[in-house]
Amino acid sequence: MAEEGDTVLPESGIHYPGGFDPNTVGEVRGTASGLTRPERGPVRFRLDSERNSYTVLTAPAWFWSDLKSELSDGAPVRVRGSKSLGRDGNLYIIAQEVEIEQAGEHLAFRDEGGFPLWKGSGAGRMGRGNGIGSSMGGPSGMRGGPGGAARGRR
Amino acid sequence: MDAGSAGEATMERRSAGPGKNIPSILAVFPLILLLANPRVGLAGWEAGTLAGFDTNVDRSVDGGERDGFLSGYVGYSRLPTGEKRWDFTWSSTLEGGVYARISDLDYVTFTAAPGIVVVPRAFFSLGISPFLEVKAVRDQDQSAVAFGGRVRLEERIRRNLYLGQYYAYTNSRAETDTFSFTEHSVGAFIGVAATSALQVELGYEFTRGDSFRTIGTSVPSGSGFGMHRRFSSAFGADVVRDEVDRHAVSLSAGMDWTPSLFSRAGYTAADTEGDLGSYVSHSGFAGVGYRF
Questions:
Q1: In CATH, which superfamily holds the domain spanning B3-291?
Q2: In whole angstroms, what is the distance from residue B58 CA to residue B142 CA?
Q3: Does A42 contact chain B (CB < 8 Å)?
Q4: I want to staple B250 with a disulfide (CB 3.0 to 4.6 A). Which of A131, B76, B280, B289 is the partner?
Q5: Judgement on whether residues A12 and A77 belong to the same structural domain of the protein
């Protein structure tokens, strides 16, 4: 589903970062190549499996940099994510997790529900409102009624 | 206390302050809500309804009045895009609620909270957000304008597990000073994305500040609480303003049924201690919402 702040990637027509669909999540093993770090939009690389080639969309460049991970051409990887067919006819994976097998590294990009980890903790995604924790305000104890509320959607 | 003494005890003067124009201020807030979003029609809006209960709506040390409520809201949020290490946020909510028994507590609120979020490193974020809340209550004494701020640290410690801590300051100026309060809160929470659609949070909050409290007739008017003592027609009893400490534990859960439709529920147990004594209250809610 498209989200606020989404951009539509020009070649594929894929919504980023909101184009993740939990119903199309799958896992692909193959070799990585062509890592690119654009100034805007997701860091991406090519994944060649035995049957298909995919473009793997990961996270903004600053987030990838913080992970301090190197992905060299030809490295065997396992990618878990939401598969999609772009309007350019190519296959895409919006990555949830990438394992660089030789280095034993697990790179996490989205939580179980597909929430982008570079957007913060994801606290308060369950809607505005009552209760303490991530919502502003609080229970009705001191503030008088169930008002308040601040955070919300993913 | 009889009606006469209650009247004598009403030393409080109604402030001519912020509450006077609250209904007219609230009337223009839907417009502000729209103007705050330059891209009306895109995602970012949310509407929902909640049903809930509170075992001590009058904050009495002698048992308290139990009541239930039904509320509805519409709001707009702008969350960080995540494309850079910092971003501006915005949240505004228009909410109204009615109570099952004490209709004087029916309310309408508008809350606006701009903010900024900074992500110094992956999985760790700092958020700062001032807020303004205007609340109109059927019992006009409780209508108020509140402002404050909140600082929040959040860290994701596992892919599906996060921790958060926050500090919040609130200064609420009510139509009648008895219902005014300032408070400082610190809290912590832990959340888990249990499945792709279910999120659960457990939180603790400590608050120190003022709170109105309903007192029985057993408390004489000269017992040190006269400065803010007045008779509340909403509660049918005298209320005073007390300095209290409050410990609260809450458990909440949210479930996404579709990308737009979600439901959530929560429960809070709170122990409030003040000069007048202490009480434990319980509150909870369940509701559904829709993002659009």
A1: monomeric porin ompg (2.40.160.40)
A2: 12
A3: no
A4: A131
A5: yes
Q: How far apart are CA B9 and CA A6, in angstroms?
A: 59
The percent of chain B in helix, strand and coil, each rounded to the nearest 5, is 15, 60, 25
Average pLDDT, chain B: 84
Per residue in B111-144, pLDDT tens?
999 999 999 999 999 999 999 999 999 999 999 9
User: Whats the size of chain B, residue-wise?
Assistant: 292
Same domain, A33 and A48: yes
pLDDT of residue B227: 60
Q: Of the candidates A121, A130, A144, which has its C-beta nearest B266's C-beta?
A: A130
Domain boundaries, chain B: 3-291
Q: Which ipTM did the prediction report?
A: 0.72
A54 Rama sector, left if φ>0, alpha if ψ -120 to 50, beta otherwise: beta
pLDDT at B81: 83
Distance (Å) from the alpha carbon of B53 to chain A's nearest alpha carbon: 9
Judged by CB atoms closer than 8 Å, whether chains meet at B159 and A117 is answered as yes
Helix (H) or strand (E) holding A16: strand A15-16
Flag if B189 and A3 touch (Cβ within 8 Å): no
- The whole-angstrom separation of Cα B75 and Cα A124 is 14
Write out pLDDT tens, residues A114-136.
888 988 766 655 555 444 444 43
Q: How many CB atoms lie within 10 A of CB A106?
A: 12
* pLDDT digit string, tens, across residues A5-60: 568 888 888 888 888 888 899 999 999 999 999 988 899 999 999 999 999 999 99
- Over residues B54-70, the pLDDT tens digits come to 999 999 888 889 999 99
Question: Within the 50-69 window of chain A, which residues sit less than 8 Å (CB to CB) from chain B?
Answer: 60, 62-63, 66-67
Burial (Cβ within 10 Å: 0-12, 13-18, ≥19) of residue A24: middle
pLDDT at B177 over 80: yes
Q: Is B148 on the interface with A (CB under 8 A)?
A: no
Q: How far is B223 from chain A (nearest CA, A)?
A: 23
A128 near B CB under 8 A: yes
Is the CB of A121 less than 8 angstroms away from the CB of B82? Answer: no
In the predicted model, is pLDDT for residue B17 greater than 60?
Answer: no
The conformation of residue A67, written as its DSSP 8-state character, comes to H
- Whether residue A125 is contained in a domain is answered as yes
Q: Does the CB of A146 have a partner CB in chain B at under 8 Å?
A: yes
- The tokens for B220 are 């004489």
| A91 lies within 8 A of chain B by CB | no
Contact: B211, A142; criterion CB under 8 Å: yes
